[in-house]
Design a protein that fits this description.
Length: about 675
């Protein structure tokens, strides 16, 4: 009832495009746009020169994102293009280097966001942050410094753009499934503001089409930003983000209906005081609420209500010309209430296991970090630091704190070669807002943790050519149970206790000329975990992944981007559907084979996108045309149990396991208008 249904929705929109109702989508293209240069691209194992630091990161500019062939122009999907990242066509969520999708921290202007995705019933298909708001993003995939905490696999750090301080402007657009309006302008001589609203219109499209399935997904979000220069040394910024989702599905089907409502809001203010050009403090005050009301089947309920409030202070100081010290403390109070009553379907004929949880708790948590970026020599840099995590609301008798040291080193033996290494312990606390009640857990215990070992090299034989290679080995311990999904049915297997992931990422890029550039990425990975007494592959174990792309500016206002992606299949658990004679008819006996004992078929897709910008005296028109999966490869999303029924009597006449595909060939034409 999740990602497979999103396939149907995308297919419907795809059909509308062929019927002659082109969709509109925000896009920008500069008149003097140049291909991506090495100074603008940060890729695995990360762009950080000796001067800039030793953290492993990937950075993407907004202009680069707008040229990628992406589903719905989603900023979160921009991270899918890099080696070491595992994702699907139907979800904006992703995992890195064999980890889980929940192991990624999403930050917006310095604030960590809780579950920032729309269409939660469809796997989180759309992120909460519109592309038009973004200034740049950074993806950190391992060995990252102590200032980034709370998650143990990676960080997706998004920075929004500063509102227009010169004049009022407006931007309106429609994309594949969204309508967006953005307004911004100055507020006195010292301030500026920005307001953006977005509404998904899948439900409006479905209302015009006769369907066998009864879907009615709705969602919307609002983002606001206010900046004010209090004094030459003090800047105040106020941010607010709100997301709303509602879904009605098969309401007349008492066994397969779904009725859900999601609300998610966060508000925060930041006061930056600059002591000098090299010293400043950031003081945050933040709060938010989130709730879920979800009913399905005959009596299944999943209601969750969260609230939080807190503050954090961070200091950056550049000392003695060769030390950059960063430190910070965060205090947060949380309240959480869960009412979970779901009959989980097990292997067998009408075999269900009740999962019940009733949690109502509140408490405080505290964390702090300290790190020093030390330029030991013009050819040697060291980052050393640590992070402290404390949760007062943990289960009685459980240690309430963890300490995670981290260290990274960069050496530059020659002008065109940099060697890097990193080691660190990363704790991922289970907060009151993330208790895995789906697995029958109602209390908070020790944090999950990972240890990262990273080593890599960056080689630049000429200024326009770059090669990056990174090897990694990550261990995972104290893992909290995971809920796995197979064949549309949530099936709980033995939760893992520990695991590890190892692999190699390679990335090359070459700016051939001012108009032409290409990139190539390859990732090898092996991820395993121990569940019970058995060692199995992790859900996102992806042995080989390969991507090649090329960018060409063939005229001052025209830009072409082509990419081809390939990866081997992820692990799958075989589905066995047997017909059983009973009471003069047929019943379907659903069984599962050995966990992750088989693999999905390989995935590959050719995508291209063309963008064009047409500036006029007082306004600007931009448009793009893209085709995803150009040669219409039938990639598979999953295998699913199905029952073959007689059309007249609705009686079961057979049992099958169906192949459910990913996106077919998907052409999209889009435009945006900016005043």
């Amino acid at each position: 009832m999740c990602i497979s249904n999103f396939r149907n929705l995308i297919s419907i929109v795809f059909c509308i495009a062929f019927l002659g109702a082109p969709n509109l989508c925000p896009v920008l293209a500069e008149d003097d746009a140049k291909p991506i240069t090495l100074e603008k691209i940060v890729v695995t194992p990360g762009r950080f020169t000796i001067y800039e630091g030793t953290s492993t990161r990937i950075a993407i500019s907004k202009e680069e994102i707008e040229r990628f062939p992406l589903v719905d122009n989603d900023v979160m999907r921009a991270g899918h293009v890099f080696p070491g990242v595992a994702s699907t066509d139907y979800s904006a969520r992703f995992s890195v280097r064999g980890g889980e999708k929940s192991d990624i921290s999403v930050r917006l202007d310095g604030m960590e966001l809780y579950d920032p995705y729309h269409l939660q019933d469809f796997g989180g298909a759309v992120s909460l942050i519109g592309l038009d708001l973004v200034q740049n993003t950074q993806l950190l995939m391992g060995g990252f410094p102590a200032e980034y905490g709370e998650k143990m696999s990676g960080v997706f750090d998004i920075t929004t753009r500063t509102p227009n301080t010169e004049k009022f402007s407006a931007n309106f657009g429609l994309d594949l499934i969204n309508a967006t309006a953005t307004l911004e302008g100055p507020l006195t001589e010292k301030g500026s503001w920005l307001l953006s609203a977005r509404r998904g219109y899948i439900d409006l499209i479905l209302a015009l089409i006769e369907l066998d399935e009864d879907y009615n997904p709705q969602y919307a979000d609002v983002y606001g930003k206010f900046t004010y220069q209090l004094t030459p040394s003090d800047t105040l910024t106020l941010n607010g983000l709100y997301g709303w989702d509602k879904n009605h599905q098969r309401l007349d089907d008492v066994d397969n209906n779904l009725d859900s409502l999601y609300n998610n809001s966060t508000v925060w203010t930041k006061w930056r005081h600059t002591f000098a050009d090299s010293h400043w403090t950031d003081v945050f005050v933040f709060g938010g609420i989130s709730n879920r009301e979800r009913t399905s089947g005959r009596a299944d309920t999943d209601d969750r209500n969260f609230g939080f409030f807190g503050t954090k202070t961070e200091l950056t100081a550049n000392l003695f010309d060769n030390h950059t010290v960063r430190t910070g403390v965060t205090w947060r109070w949380l309240t959480a209430a869960y009412q979970y009553n779901v009959q989980e379907r097990q292997a067998g004929i009408d075999v269900y296991k009740p999962i019940l949880a009733d949690v109502d708790d509140s408490g405080t948590e505290f964390n702090a970090f300290l790190q020093d970026e030390w330029q030991l020599h013009s050819k040697l840099a060291l980052n050393v630091g640590g992070r402290y995590v404390y949760q007062l609301y943990r289960e009685e008798g459980i240690q309430r704190y963890e300490i995670g040291p981290r260290v990274a080193l960069a050496v530059k033996p020659t002008n065109n070669l940099i060697l890097r290494g990193a080691w660190g312990i990363y704790h991922q606390p289970v907060s009151l807002m993330e208790v895995p009640v789906e697995d029958g857990i109602e209390t908070v215990g020790r944090a999950e943790n990972a240890v990262h070992y990273v080593i890599g090299a960056e080689y630049t034989p000429i200024n326009s050519f770059l090669v990056r290679v990174e090897g990694y080995y990550n261990t995972y311990n104290n893992l909290v149970g995971r809920l796995r999904e197979f064949g549309r049915q949530n099936q709980v297997f033995d939760p893992p206790q520990s695991g590890d992931a190892r692999g190699l990422d390679v990335f090359m890029t070459h700016a051939v000329s001012n108009r032409l550039s290409w990139t190539l990425g390859y990732a090898y990975g092996l991820a395993e975990e121990i569940a019970g007494d058995e060692t199995i592959f992790r859900q996102h174990d992806r042995r080989h992944a390969f991507a090649v792309s090329s960018s060409y500016q063939f005229a001052p206002t025209w830009h072409l981007y082509i990419s081809w992606r390939f990866h081997t299949g992820e692990p799958r658990t075989p589905l066995i559907h047997r017909e059983v004679q009973a009471n003069g008819g047929i019943l379907c006996d659903r069984q599962f084979g050995d966990t992750h004992s088989e693999r999905m078929p390989a995935y590959h897709s050719l995508d291209f996108r063309m963008t064009k910008r047409s500036p006029y005296r007082r306004w600007e028109l931009s448009w793009y045309f893209q085709i995803l999966n150009l040669y219409n490869q039938q990639n598979l999303d999953q295998y699913a149990f199905s029952e073959v029924r007689d059309e007249e009597t609705n009686a079961i006449v057979g049992c099958a396991v169906d192949e459910e595909p990913l996106l077919p060939i998907l052409p999209t034409l889009g435009v945006t208008v900016r005043f």
